[in-house]
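In response to reviewer comment 3 from the previous cycle, which asked for concrete evidence that the modeling workflow produces usable outputs, we include below a single protein chain processed end to end. The sequence was submitted unchanged, and the resulting structure tokens are shown without manual editing.
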Amino acid sequence: MKNTISTTWRHIRRSPYQAMAAIVTMMSTFFVVMVFALIFLGSTVLLTHLESLPQVTAFFKDEAKQSDVDSLKQKVQATGQVAAIKFVSKSDALKIYQEQHKNDKLLLELVTADILPASLEVSATKVQDLPSLAEVLKSSSAVEEVVFARDVVDKLAKFIVGTRFITTILSVLLFITLTFTTLFIISLRVFVHKEEIETMRLLGAGKWKIFWPFLLEGIFYAAASATISGIVAYFITPVIASFYQDIFLGVLTLPIPITTHLLVVAAGILLGVIASFIGGLIAVNRYIKV
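The workflow returned the following structure tokens.
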């Protein structure tokens, strides 16, 4: 193993400009992967938040009793589709109304707690479950009206499904791109050292003995590229995200935690190792016939 590492280091030291070119080439791909990963993580938080926002609200009749409310809450929770459930009493509804119209004294004087209905606000674990929860709420005789924005929910559900599908496809494409980039770099390195490889073959070296130095070289490039890209992304991503901070205030946290970046860099290095192994194996099998 020591000889393999020394061979790898000798390859890098003897051709520093090629090594730098390899790192820069891989770094451009890794940078896209890093930024995309951070955006994906941010969008996951955002989508989770958006999923919890849509609510179906059941307004109770004036004669509804607390036992009716408790019974309906248990029935809704039994569906296993509830993310959160909140009972809003008449007095709570009045406080909300007063807060919303605190600058209009006339409206505040006209409304009392007696004329506002108590309600049950239900958030679903999945936006697709809201219609079925609405039907459960409608089944109660104590409920006067059930309200939820069906069109908004349907569009949001399609948006979430579409976004997750696109991110999955892009993740696969980026990995394929990284693998082919690594394949090209290692293939070039194999070609550059073809005379050394021929000498090793004449001395009876097996395919794996020849393969490992190039694999470690690819891993070195991947690790260096992932680390540099992670550092650059650490400063660039918050700048990009800051443009949307006013829109998603309270949902996205800036600056992005350093632990998140370290996890992304670690995942990038792991991705690079896997891509290096696949690309290196293909390159060796193609150019080294042992």
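The chain has ten helices and four strands. We consider this sufficient to address the reviewer's concern, and the full set will be provided in the supplementary archive.
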